Amino acid sequence: SIEAHDDYDNITVVPTRSQHRTAPDFMDLCEADVNTEWFMFTNSYHKVARHVDLMFVPGTFNPVVPFTPATYAFCFKFPYCKESVNLAQRFNPGHEKVVLDFDFLYHTETRNAFCREWKERFGPEGENLYKGRRKQKALEGKIIGPSGPTGTSYAAYLAREGKEGMYKFTDRSLYGARDPFIKTFAREERLDGMSDEARDLQIDRNLTVSDCNCKAFETEEDCEGSGLGCIWRPLFDSCRPPELVDGSTPICEATQVPTMSPTVHDPLDDTPAPTEAPTTPPHVDPWYASLFKTKERELDVARNSIENLDDKKSDAETQEAIEAYMQDSGSDLSLIGENDETLGAGSAFEHS
After folding, report:
1. Which residues contact 201 (CB under 8 A, 6 or more apart)?
2. Strand 168-171 relative to strand 64-69: parallel, antiparallel, unpaired?
């Protein structure tokens, strides 16, 4: 709903009508009171662009609507966009088009049918929109996503109902698009969407920071006299920041999206690189070690030979002592073994 004053339709070249909200702002799509066959809507933070001239397919006069493909580069790395697609896929699984709310030329009768189903599913003001997921999201933090119906969900509803043919969808990433509404109060819109504590902190930090919005200047005089360094592009009849024209330094400080790297570097986040676990280097014998090992082997062989000779000598002495004892005692006991020299494991005793 645009700012409520009676003469707003005199400010733009497109017939407009203002109305006061009777529901939360996120329900604007379904709560807008419309009496025409087709309509577009915006809010009081925007104004209708001077260049706005809706495009239609020649002959069929189907409205041309720009969309952004639902890919990681254009959508899924942004939590809000990702959640918008997730909600839209409840109407049409596999939906892959992201359409901004203010880019759609809505068909009033179809909008009404869409909103009836949306409210039946999620409640009059979206009370059940995230039902069943809040416990899961509570572990991750605040839910970052739409609170009400969106143009993306409306597009998914059209696809499911087989009504996509009433539009001509064009890929914004390939062919570009021009916004029908210009945001004139970007900073105020950001502040209004914050909590009281976050708003006070943001105001204290940014008392002198401007919106840095070159698109808000719609004439060459306003663009070049903005003091921001904006550049007028006669071919496109638009005002753009210099970095979009010649790749120069951005005129306004830019930050990454919240889900990517932090905007401010904290030295406390730095940690030393992990060290490798200590390992024992392999043992390498010096070149002369083989000489000593050879000598040690020879000594071991000689020592084993001597021990074997001692064992045999001991066995022989034992045999002689037994025989001498038998002769002295006059006994008929004789020994029968596997050999004549030793008493082996297979020996037996005979007694006459």
Report:
1. none
2. parallel
The span from the CA of 129 to the CA of 287, in Å, is 79
Q: Which run of H or of E encompasses 98? A: strand 97-98
What is the value of pTM for the model shown?
A: 0.61
Number of residues that this document lists for the chain = 352
**How far is it, in rounded angstroms, from Cα 17 to Cα 48?**
12
Contact (Cβ atoms closer than 8 angstroms) between residue 166 and residue 38: no
The single-letter code of the amino acid at 23 is A
Structure tokens at 146: 């739409």
Q: Is residue 19 within 8 Å of 33, Cβ to Cβ? A: yes
Distance CA 276, CA 279 (A): 9
Angstrom distance (rounded) from CA 132 to CA 121: 13
- Rounded to a whole number of angstroms, the distance between the first and last alpha carbons of the chain is 132
pLDDT at res. 284: 63
Confirm if 213 and 223 have CB atoms less than 8 A apart.
no
pLDDT tens, residue by residue, 133-149: 656 655 556 778 899 99
The one-letter code for the residue type at 302 is: A
